[in-house]
Amino acid sequence: MQGTGNKTFDIAWVREQFPSLKLQVNGQTAAFLDGPAGTQVPKQVMDAVRNYFLTANANTYGAFQTSRRNDEMILAARAAMADLFNCDRNEIVFGQNMTTITFAFARAIGRELKAGDEIVVTTLDHDANVAPWRALEEKGVVIRQVDIRQEDCTLDLDDLQRKITAKTKVVAVGYASNIVGTINPVAEITKLAHAAGALMFVDAVHYAPHGLIDLKALDCDFLACSPYKFFGPHMGTLYGKREHLEKLKPYKVRPATNTSPECWETGTQVQELIAGIGAAVDYIAGLGRHCDQSVKSRREALQAAYCATHPYETGLLSRLIAGLRTIPGMRIFGITDAKRFDERCSTLSFRLGDHNPTEIAAFLGERGIFTWDGNFYALNLSERLGVEQHGGVLRVGLVHYNTAEEVDRLLSGLTEFAKEN
Question: Could you tell me the pTM of the whole model?
Answer without folding.
Answer: 0.95
